[in-house]
Each structure stands twice: as C-alpha cells, then as structure tokens.
Design brief:
globular; five-stranded mixed sheet; six-stranded mixed sheet; alpha+beta; 65 helices; disordered N terminus; single chain
Length: about 1900
Amino acid sequence: MSNFYEERATMIAAGDLQEFVPFGRDHCKHHPNALNLQLRQLQPASELWSSDGAAGLVGSLQEVTIHEKQKESWQLRKGVSEIGEEVDYDEELYMAGNMVIWSKGSKSQALAVYKAFTVDSPVQQALWCDFIISQDKSDKDYSSDEVEKCICILQSSCINMHTIEGKDYIASLPFQVANVWPTKYGLLFERSSSSCEVPPGPPREPLPTLFSMLHPLDEITPLVCKSGSLFGSSRVQYVVDHAMKIVFLHTDPSIVMTYDTVQGLHSVWALRRVKPEEGNAVLKFSEQGATPQNVATSSSLTAHLRSLSKGDSPVASPFQNYSSIHSQSRSASSPSLHSRSPSISNMAALSRAHSPALGVYSFSGVQRFNLSSHNQSPKRHSFSHSPSSNSNGSFLAPETEPIVPELCIDHLWTETITRLRKRNSQASKVFITSDLCGQKFLCYLVESELQLRCVKFQESNDKAQLIFGSVTNIQAKDAAPVEKIDTMLVLESSGNLVLYTGVVRVGKVFIPGLPAPSLTMSNTMPRPSTPLDGVTPTNPLNKLLGSLDEVLVSPVPELRDSSKLHDSLYTEDCTFQQLGTYIHSIRDPVCNRVTLELSNGSMVRITIPEIATSELVQTCLQAIKFILPKEIAVQMLVKWYSVHSAPGGPSDHSEWNFFVTCLMNMMGYNTDRLVWTRNDWEYLLNSDYHQNVESHLLNRSLCLSPLEVSQMKDEDFPQNLSLDSSTLLFTHIPAIFFVLHLVYEELKLNTLMGEGVRSLVELLVQLARDLKLEPYVDHYYRDYPTLVRTTGQVCAIDQGQTGSMQYPSFFTPEPPSVYQWVSSCLKGEGVPPYPYLPGICERGRLVVLSIALYILGDESSLSDESSQYLSRISIAPQKPPAEQEESRLSFSHSTSVSSLAERLVVWMTNVGFTLRDLETLPFGIALPIRDAIYHCREQPASDWPEAVCLLIGRQDLSKQACEGNLPKGKSVLSSDVPSGTETEEEDDGMNDMNQEVMSLIWSEDLRVQDVRRLLQSAHPVRVNVVQYPELSDHEFIEEKENRLLQLCQRTMALPVGRGMFTLFSYHPVPTEPLPIPKLNLTGRAPPRNTTVDLNSGNIDVPPNMTSWASFHNGVAAGLKIAPASQIDSAWIVYNKPKHAELANEYAGFLMALGLNGHLTKLATLNIHDYLTKGHEMTSIGLLLGVAAAKLGTMDMSVTRLLSIHIPALLPPTSTELDVPHNVQVAAVVGIGLVYQGTAHRHTAEVLLAEIGRPPGPEMEYCTDRESYSLAAGLALGMVCLGHGSNLIGMSDLNVPEQLYQYMVGGHRRFQAGMHREKHKSPSYQIKEGDTINVDVTCPGATLALAMIYLKTNNRSIADWLRAPDTMYLLDFVKPEFLLLRTLARCLILWDDILPNSKWVDSNVPQIIRENSISLSEIELPCSEDLNLETLSQAHVYIIAGACLSLGFRFAGSENLSAFNCLHKFAKDFMTYLSAPNASVTGPYNLETCLSVVLLSLAMVMAGSGNLKVLQLCRFLHMKTGGEMNYGFHLAHHMALGLLFLGGGRYSLSTANSSIAALLCALYPHFPAHSTDNRYHLQALRHLYVLAAEPRLLVPVDVDTNTPCYALLEVTYKGTQWYEQTKEELMAPTLLPELHLLKQIKVKGPRYWELLIDLSKGTQHLKSILSKDGVLYVKLRAGQLSYKEDPMGWQSLLAQTVANRNSEARAFKPETISTFTSDPALLSFAEYFCKPTVNVGQELLDLFSSVLYECVTQETPEMLPAYIAMDQAVRRLGRREMSETSDLWQIKLVLEFFSSRSHQERLQNQPKRGLFMNSEFLPVVKCTIDNTLDQWLQAGGDRCVHAYLSGQPCEESQLSMLACFLVYHSVPAPQHLPSIGLEGSTSFAELLFRFKQLKMPVRALLRLAPLLLGNPQPMVM
C-alpha cells in the first residue's frame, strides 16, 4: 500500500479552477467616461479567443503598454473588514487611464465595486496605504495610534489620497516620481533620475533620490541611510545614489530591498523612524560642507531643488491652476524671491489636530527641500522675514528652514558578488515566505538567469534586528507565495508548476482542466482527458482553454524577454511549446488563491488545498510539529501534504484515517497488517455490530447467508508484527505519543470534540501497548471502557531498537490527566505541575490556572510563569514563543478587582475566554468558573470593560460599556420622528421632543402638552373683543388691532422660553436645512374667525418691532440641535436664508450654534464674510456665539475678532471704526466669556475702565450707556470669577475700591492709560461734571463685585453691599439697585443662605421692617419724616433680591424648603398686586419683583416640571394688558422654560461659571418693549445654556430597549449642613449635582443591582448623562417591570413564597414567558415541560422543578448541567455507560461543593443563594452509590478482584467496572504491589497502607472485603 502512496504523491491537485478577469475592467467599460472609446482601441487586432469582446489582455504588474495612450494594471490583497474580523475575500485595485476602481468579493460573496475614482490625468500608480495619526513621533509603540486607511493615486504632478472616512488630500510633488511604495509609516517616493541634473552652482552635487511622506498633510522629506563604514564608525547621510533602485518593500518586518544597477547587487535595509540625534547629525554634516560627493552644501542644493521643481514639473499639468492658488509661481524667477507665503492651505494644516508637526509647514504648492541649517532650532512662526536680513551674502533666502528627515534605512545584508554576474540581473519579483515550521525566507526572482534566490532570515533574540543566513537558488521562471499554508508556487522553466515550502520541494501541482506538463521530454502531449474529479469544465473554460488541435499563436507580443524564453524552452521541451496553452506566469497571490496567466493571454485563478481541513488533524499536526526538530517536522509535513492533497484525495470524514495511516507508516508500522487500520469493509465484518446483525432473527428469516469473514479472528492473527526502525519518525515515537496524549486531554475539555477524542484514543492505545506503557492503557480504559479492550494486537519492538528511541525529558510514566488534576485540587491534595504545549493546549492551561486561583486561592498563579502548576514542554532550551509572552496577564487597565472571583473573571476575559468557550467546557470543570461568574454577577463594578460584563452575563453593563466606547452620536432615546410628520399642522418647533421619556417622567397628566400650547408662537392668537353698541365698525377694527398689539407683546416673548423647553433635543439631518418655525403675529377674531393683522395701517406699530423676536426665534430653533450632532461648516452656511427679512433669525441661529459648541466648526473665512456684511444682528449673534464656544480658552484668534469691535481694546492711533452700540456690548461680554476665570490683567484693567466710560463729545457713547456699563461689569466679573482677594498681580488696580466707587458715586478718577486723548473734551450733550454717574455704573459694578467675590464669604466686601439703614441714605439709592445689592451680598456670603422666609426677611434693614406698610391696610399712616413710597419699594426689592439669591444657591436642586419659601413669597406678591394700596409701591415694581421670584422658583425646580410653578406661569400667561409689558412676559415664559429645561433632561448647575452665565441671562431688569436694549442686551438672555447640564438618568431595559422605571438609591456625601444620607428615587429622574454624591445604585429586587461609585471620579457617570442619560438595566428573572406591576404582587417569587418545594409542582411552565426573556429557557419549557406521550410524569416534574430552580435562582446556564447529571445517573442505572466522562463531571461537581474553599465562601456570604439546589446533589450521590453497590453484590466484586490482581475479566462487565474505578478513585493495579497487600489482616492496616495512595475511605470500605480475603463486600 505504501508503494501506492509513493507513486501518487508526486502530484498535488489544485482546486477551484475559475476564469479570471479583473473586475475593474468590466466596470471601466460601463463607467460614464471618455474611457469607453479608449477601451475599444485597447483590444488587440485579432480577437481570436474572445468572442464576447472582453478585452482579453494581460494586465501585469510590469504595466505592459499595448497602446500608447492606455495601460491597465491591477493588484489584489486579502480582504480587510472595517471592524477587523477575519474575512475571506479578495480586494482588487484596478487602474486604467484616468480611473482607479476598488472592488471586493469572492466565491461566496458577489464582486462589487466599493469605490471608483476618476482623476484629471493618467494614473501612474494606485496603492493602499495606512497612515499613522499619532501625537508623538518617537518609534515607541504604534499599537495605540489611530490609523487612517487610504487609497493613494499617483499622477504625474501630484498624488491624491482618499481615506476610508471620506477625507481627501492632494499633495503636489516637487519632482517627478518613478515609484511610490507604501510603508508601515507612510509613503516612500523614488525620484525618477531621468531629469536633467545640472544645478546652477559650479560644484555638482547629487540630490536625494528617496523621499518619505508620513501623512498627507506633512511635508515630503528626504530619506537618510545609515551604513557601517570599514572602520566601524557609521554615519548618516542622504540617499543620493541614482544607481540604487527599490525593488521591494515590506511592512512587517519593515524592510526595503534595493538593487544597485552599477554593481548589479541586491541589498536589504531596515526601514525605521529617524532618531532625533541622527536628524541633527545630517543637518550639521551638510552645514560643514563636507565632500561634494557625499552631501550637498546647502545653498546650491536648495536653489537647485527649487529650479528643478520649477523647470521640471510638466507645464501642461492639469494642476497648473491648483498650484497657482498656492501662490507658488512656476515661472523661472530667481530663487531668492521665493519667500514662504502663508497660503490658504495653512487653514488645512492648522485644522489637523493630530498632525505630528502641528501645521508647521504651510503646504505651498511645490515644496522646497532645503538642507541648510542656519538655525538649529527651526523658526516655526515667522512666515517671512524682511529681505534686509540677508547677511550671509549667499542668494539663499534666509527663512527657508532645513527639512528634518523622518525615515532612515539601516543596512542589513547584501548578496555576495559572483564573477559571472550579468549586468541586468535586477529582481523582477520579491516576496517573503515562510516554511511549514515558521522559518522565514526572502525570495527574489532574477529573470535573466531564471533563478529564484531564497535567503533565510530570522529575528535576533532581542527582536531588535534581522539576521540573514544562507542563500538557496531554485531554477524558476516565476514564483508566488501561498501565505495561508506557508508554501510557495514555483513555475519551472519546463512549464511545470511546483509547490515548495521554504526550499523543500513538496510536489508538482496538477490543475484539473489544464494539460499536465509532460513528465518525459519526448512524448507528444496527450489530449487532456476529463479532470480527475469527473466534472467536465463549464463552457467558458472550454472556450478559454481553446481546442488544443489548433496551434494558437499568442496575439500579444511575448511579454518577458522572448529571446531567453526560446533559448530555454526549445532546447528542453519543444513539444510542449508547440502545444499552445502553457502557464506563462503567476500573479496576485492572496491567502491560498493565485492567478495563473496562460500563454494565450487568458488567466485562471486556482486554489491550493489547505494542509488539513478537520480540526482534529490540524491540532495533531501542530502538536507533532511543535515537538519534532525543524528539519524532520518539515519532511513529515511535506509527506503528509503530498498524501493529503494528491488528486482525488480524502474527503473530510476520511481525512483522519488517512492521517493515522500516513503517521504510522512514517513511524515504521506496516499499516496493511494492523487490524484497526485495515480497510473499512473488513473492519465492519469484524465489528460487534456485524455479529449482532448476523444473529438477528430477521437475518435468518430472510435466509441471508452469513458473510465470509476473510480475516482470521484476533487471537490467531499473526503476533509477530514488528516495526521498521529505519523510518523517519521511529526514534521520536515516545515524544509523539506524549504530545498526542496531551492533545487528547485537551480535547476532553471541549464537549464538541467527542468524536475526535474517540478516534484519537484508538491510535493512542495502539502506541501505548507497543511502548508497554501499562498506566496509559489503564487510563484510556477508564475513560472509554467499550473502545479499549484489555487485550489487543501488539507490535513487537526489538529490544535492540528500543535503545534508539528517545524518551524526552518531559515524558512521565504516570499519564497526566486533567480531570484527575482538578479533582485533587478540589480535595486539597498536593498536585504535580500539569504539562502543557504552548499554543496548542490553551484550554488545559486556562483550566489549571483558574482552578489554582479560585480553589487554591493562590493569587500569584496568574502573575509569574506559574511554574508550580504548569510545566511547559519544549524540545530544547529555546526562546519561548512570542505569543506566550503576551498572554501573561497584566492588570494594566484600572479595573477594580477585589475578590478572587473578580480576579478570575477579569483574567479570563483578558486571555480571550468567552461565553461560547465556557459552554463547551464539560460541566464539572466549568462549575468553579461558573461559580465565580455567579459571584461577580451579583455586584459588579460599573467600570469593567465590555468583555467582562458579557462573560458574567450582565448585558446591561456590557451594552453600557459598548455604548461608552462609541463616539457621541445619536443615542437610543433620540426620537427618530421624521420632520415631515407634522406638515398638516404648522410646525411649532417642538415636535422633536422625546415623548417616550417625558411620558415616563410625567406619567399622570398632560402637562407637557400644556407647555407646548403655552409656548407655541406659530399659530394666530385669538383676539376676543366685544363690540359695544356705541362703537363704529372702524373703531371696532382699531380696538381689535390694539388688542392684538397687546397680545403680540406676549407672542414675541415666547421663543426664549421655547428654546429652553426644546434645548438640545434634535439631531439635524445634514442634507436638510434646520426647520425654523414662523413667528406668527396675526390674530383670529371670533365668532367668524376673521383674520386680524397689524399691517393694515389702522394703528401705529413701532418700527422694527419684530427684529429681536425673530432673533430669539432663530436662537430657539438653533438650540434644539444637540451638542453631539454631526454637523459641519458647509451645513451652517447652507442654512443661510435667501430672504433678507430672515437675516435676524439666522443671526440667532448662529448664536445658538455657538452656545452648543458647533460654531467652532465654522471656517474663519465664513466668519469674516458674515462680519463684513455689517448686519448688526448677525454680528451680535456671531460674536456672542464664537465667544461662548471658546469659553475660558483665551483663544487669540477670537480675541482679535472681538477686539476689533471694542474701541478700548484698539491701539490709540487706530482709525475709529463705526461699530453699532449693541455690537460693542456683545463684544465686551464676549471678551468676558473668552477670558472667563483667567484673571487676565490687561483685560481686567480695560474692562474696569469701561464700566465708567464717559460719554464722548460727538454724541458717541451717549445712548443706552447703561447696557454697556453693565456688560463691562459682567465681563469684568467673569474674567476675575471667584478669585476674590487673590487677584495676582492686580493689587495696584484697586479693583474692589474702584468698583465700590462706581457703585456709590464720587469723584471720577482721572483716566490713565492710552485712551486719555479721547476723553479730554467732555460731551456736549450730557453734563455729568466730574462725578461718576451712579445710575449708569452701579449695576455693572455691583454684579462685578458679586462675581469676583462669589462664594468667598468675604464679610468686609459683603458689608459694603448691605442695604442702607437710615431714611437719609435710602433716598440716595434707586430701589431697583437694592435688589442687585442684596443679591450680590448673598452670593458673596454663599454659605449663609438658608432656605426659609426668616432668613429672607433678615436681609431687610430694621427701619424698613418697622415702618413698612402692610399692603392690605386701607388708609396710609401719614408721617412727615418717612417717605413711605421709598420704604415700600425698597422693601419689595430687597425681598426679591434675597429670593433671587436663594434661587441661585439652590438652582437645580429641587430643595423642598427653598421651594416652599419661594412659593410663599410668590403667592404674597400675587396678593399684593391686587391689594388696594398697590399703587404706593407701584404696580411696575411689584410686577418686576413677582417675575424675579417666579424665576427664582423656576431655577430651584429647573427641569422638574413642578405643577405648582406651572400653575403660576399659566396664570401669568393669561394676564395681558395693563402693566404687563414685553419684558414681564419674557420673564414669565423664561420661568416656564426653565421649569421644563430640555424637556426635563437638563437642570442647572451651581458651578461658578454657571452662576455667571445665569446672572447675565436672568438680569432682573426686563425690557419695556421688544426693541428695548437700554439696560441689558436682550441677546444675553440666552446664556442660560452655559449653566444647563444634563442630569436626567433614564433606565433603559436592555432586552426591550425601551425606557422604564427603576429604583435608585442615591447616597449624598456628608457636608457641614447634613450627615451622609441615602435617598431613594424612582428613575427616570434628575440627579442632584454630581459633586454632592458619593454613589448611585440601581436597587433590586426587580433589576440586577448596579453600583456607580462616584468617589473614584465622576467621569463615567458624566459620559452616561451626556449621552441622553441612558443607563441600561436588566430585569431579574421572575420579575415584572414597574409599569406592568406597580406594587410587585405578580412576580413569580411572590406566588410561590409560601413554601419552596410544595409549590414547585404548581409552577406552570406556560407562565415562564412573563418572567424570563431567555429564548433557551422558553423553548425548554415549550418542549420538555408539557405532557407528551413519551415522557413520563416523573420526568416532567423533574424538568419543571429544574426549570423553576434555574429561573428563580437566576442561573439559566445551569439547566444543561442539571439535565446532563440526571441523564448520566439514569444511564448508569441502566448500565449503559460507554464512556465515563459524565461520571467524572458529577464527581467533580460533588467534590466542588464539598471543597474547603466553597465552604469558606458560604460562611463569608451566608445570604448568597446556593448555586446548585442543595436537595438535588445528595440524591444524585445516593443513586450512584446504590447502583454501584448493587453491581458489586451482583458479581461485580469478582470483576474488581480480577482487575486488581491483573487477570482478565468478562467483557460485559467492563463498562461498569470502569465506572466503579473512576467514581471511587481506585488506584491502578501496578500501584498496589508497592504497598504490599498480601499481609494485611485488618481494616486499620489497610487504611494505613492506602494512605499514600490518597484513596477515599468510603471507597476503601467497599474494597476491604476483597483485599482482606472475605468475598462479601461491606456495603453501607
């Protein structure tokens, strides 16, 4: 038989023959392009073989030009998926003409075009390249950096790069490029040397030839090389040698192969990043002006490069215009004029945040390489110097800096010089391949000599460099690597295709359907018969191969140098040549697929078969390969491969038999004569099954004659088989046997490999018998009693030859057993280390280490190489394989791990263990791991990575972790309502709110609809006016319009509130403009619904009345956009309206974009455009928006932008710009925002002066001075926010004193500083004299003091702000200012604020308290010295101020006492308004105070939607007319908006910056009408956005993905006012401010508990809140959600709470669906727990109770284990155990529950539910004991006795005997003699003797009678 193999093994059959046509070619034809014409020309004249007009031409990588205009080429690579998992398809990059087509596809997936690019000039090269985007440029570690995957397309003058993300870059090239290569770091360019090399200077130096570009936005830099010279010193220099051509470049390892055309030698270089010292060395070197041959002196080189770049670039380049944009003249101007100009693309460079050299070089059209080094530190900032600085006299412009090289090549190897070297021996193809044992070779094909040279290389031990070895030459015409199976295909010159692995020949490749190459020279070729598979080739293939009768002459001229082909081929094999189709070349290898190019121009793609397809054979081969010396391993694999892949080779299921036969042949067995490897028919006849069938009744009745068994029976089979010791593997049999045994133990740990284990055990038993290893045979017998007979065929091994067998050092006489090892651990016995094969027995290693950690509690088991538990097997002391090093556990990430269980789970995920692996472990082995998982599941840490959460089965956490890694985008909760849904009703701007969450928060009423109704401004209002009889119609119309005008005051105030309500609730579609609802100012008059309009001309309407209202409307629309939305500059510009009247809305929209952070994306160019329009509103919106987006950054560009609009910040000599007043105000506040909290000295100084800016002479600065002064005060407060007295470096400014003076008045200080000139002459209109006008300066100064000293509790400053306590002083202060003073004082004394009315009243001075009138009295008390009006006004304003401070102090806290206190005052003010004496105080003042109190109330309850506050707002909404002006409506609706901030998702923060923003937004002086900006700029009302923060936590059920209710327990940190306290909240709820909290916990019992610990940091929670607050929760089994079952009375546990077991029967499996969503449990209930015909009631009960147990105990994963144990016990009872693995598992389960570690855990955590039912295990144990004892009594004892004394026993008893031995841990018989059994007389003696065998006592009791010689066993 072996001879038969030898003959057949010469050939290897290739599979999958397919015609190959590059997919891009077909696509090109249909592409709408001018290409169609060209492709027609592209076809050769004689279309002999292609009737369908397909352009059959050879696209080779050499880019053969067939037509002058057109060439095509393509390359293939292994498919790369976006996510990074394994994919099995090819990707093709095809280029022809101006097109590049990228397609993907394979056999299983249809080919499809992925991208097609068309460029302006012919494509010279296209390639894939990955650019690294990294912050640092050191060569440390690139695993962490992001990679940009790109396609690069090279044209003659530029290179285009397109990333997968869709960014496009174009880089123009400063020289003509011969070739581009992708490297690990970026691109490598080879300059073409054809260009004229005449530099202008007299000394001729060469220019660099190799350049690199590390990122599309980086500069192209020259490459340097470092080569050792003779004297050992190495030096660094540019690569300038023109003779050096790159022929190959590889990324991993990163090497370059070059060919020197002069010497004709190939060299290999390592490519790496330049070290900084080398870069400097090159620059210094060039500076010294060394010998001209080596390096260029700077001046002429740079000049030459410039002239080169100008003269050489083709003038007709399509990029002519492109480059001219870049201000780079291409005229041959003198080089000195080339100054570096800041070009437009500077913007691009700056915008790239990740650029390694952050926008250092402006990318001006053509770059300059200049190697001079005038200044070692290159100047980064100066873009141009004045020409006069040209001191060195050379004509080199001094500002060109040296370009630092970035990549370097180190010389590694050069081939040896041979004498007969032909000149043109450049390699045409180079690749790296590795042989079957991982030895790597660099192969290069030298075509002129028809040689493939293979150089062996390997990494040095420290992995720092590559060591090159010997060179082997193989005769070849072409070659290609087959990566997947570590081989390569070689096309020999005779036309044969041969497979090599490394340099070992494997065999010829037979291609079905192609003629086999002739094996002898003379025969004429036979006609190809049908392929061996018996499949006739399909039509196209027949057509493709042509009929071999015709002699085909190739219409394509011979591609390779044809003369050499004729020489070689005709001499060798003329007949073959004449026969037409032969393989011409090989190309495009991917995985194990490769394309053959035939001589007739067509191409065929074939697949080389894999080494092994079945997992079992693969594992065995791996193990054997690991243990054998490399050379023998390669020979063995080659032999196996040629057997396996021979034509008509094995199918999958027979592969194992092939493998065994092949292996045993190589060991020296004669497999024909071995019984169990004999042919299958005989095996069948000899089988037990056959004998059973023969004796069957049916057989007799059908009179079937018994078959002749040709072979003799086992006994009389010749026993004299011997092994041939000369074979390859004979000496290695013990080693192979041992590793196969380890593979067997490994496979036992995978329940899916049972079939494989049974196949393997037959081979192992044969080897163990022949090697006379009794313990091993016994071990296999115990595992598979029915497969392993006690007797069998033995092949004798000569004693003489036994010596030549090598027993390796790791061989153990006792068989290592993983079950036994675990069992010993559980019993707490000492264990020897368990042997394992790195990379093969990974499961065994995992099990051993996890048991060591979890059961033995040894924490160090994971850290060191764990030698005490594992012994690694290695042949020689070689270096450990790399993968081993990495899999060592490092707790690198900051996961909090406390208990052993947590350590185990985290470690297992780190080594890549998943749930699917766990399910395939046998249940007994998996039990400890499951136990650890069960532990962790109860109380996991919230910061575990996703993989850990998946393993412990907490989908809620894993989903949370997974969402956490996603970029902020649309969240689960964003409502995907398309904006077109509400077209029938006019869009009111509130349709995009998330109804689902709001209906959970406010489930019991329709308050949200009510708010929508109150805040909508898109529908006409109802104008209800009664027509009295005395009114004429005309007057009636006027009356109606007047009434409408009043109502419009309210409508115009609504948008501000609407913006608050819809804050951040919408993700815009980037292709549609943002819908902005119309502001509708018309009315409808009942009863006939006639339209009332303000524009009829009957009444006077103020001009510009709606301008600010539409501004607010724009802001409200813009604020809907969530900060996480993906929008860009183009979209912002795209929203610009066409009509001029909408400009105000767009201005508001821009401001809103600034507030939500999107305005930073707007290009500087567009900002400039908008500002030059001079539209006042747009400027205001833009300045405030940009400033808000750059809050607190001190951004210089924004500062410049703002300064232009503030005269005080411009230099004194500058021209006076005419900036509108409101724009100045906005700019001043903008400065405050940009410099917030920075205490910037200059800014503070200017702003301080601006508070008191006097009016100028020519009417400038005269109107609305108050708002400017206030803005300066607010800005100053922001700049010095909270700094208090620690204002560093500002003590000389006397800020507080100056502010105090502004507040109380006094002499104006003389203006110091540069603006003195402007204020020389006083104003002609306003006579202020030289005192400060307090009415203007007081508010700003007061608030500035408040903000500077915010929360500092500074009493002395606070006392300045105390309200005056004498009548005389009271008369000096405007009552309104008392409100501000009180507010300021309270904000400074932050910690003194108490939420009760007593504290509020304590702010009122005594004189006011005693004399203030109660407003309900009828007559006023008269008093001559007290002005009651002043007193009562002062009183209400002070109270309002105190209330406002209360609102700030408790903003967003929902503090109950604060709410009650404020609510009381609000009610009081409401009653005052209707009191008879209201006129004393003045209704206006009362309205103001009421609005302030209402706002304070809304601040405290922000986002909560409180009903009482809503009622107040609704009441005030209805009040129109009277004193209710625009400003009061504005305040009331702002209060309403705050109450529902962001639809209940947002709340207010009390951080300093938030308070500053709220002070601007809620400034308590409201505009009198819609155009009033006198005291406060209306645009500032929107700054509340800066104080809003997301604080809504929405539990989302992970199974249904819908929001739900869940109980939270929030723990507050202790403070000075209260101890640490806990509070229960029902989520979805607004959380308190995070800095107040210690932890948040999702409470049981309905949901799995989840703890978020904030003491470690709030980052995790903040990221959850910012993503819509989605917190995933998971219902526990048997529980219902709060919505379905509010009281918790329907849960599964509630029904059966009475008694655990009596009720279990009543559990109806039908009800399970309400309690678990696990599909496995549901189907189990469906099929196994319902009565059917063939399942007994007892079994049904068992299944139901097991199911109930699993559901209630939350251990669905234990269901299979319960069932498996039950089945095993039943099988044992029926005595049908054919294998003992289930018994082993039960034994391990029992041992685990009685193990010490488990008992200790139970004591430590008594509450924890038992993991397996405590009643189930004893029953199992008892049943097994009984069954085995009955067997013993029924004659089993004789059997055991026979076994122990080594005699054979009867066949029928074998399986039960094995069960008995396994279950009772009886030692193997060969251990017994050592302890001397004969002499024992008593049981005590037995106990003593068996002690060292560690046999359990209860087993010994059963054996004692046999051993003590009394035959009756003592059964307990």
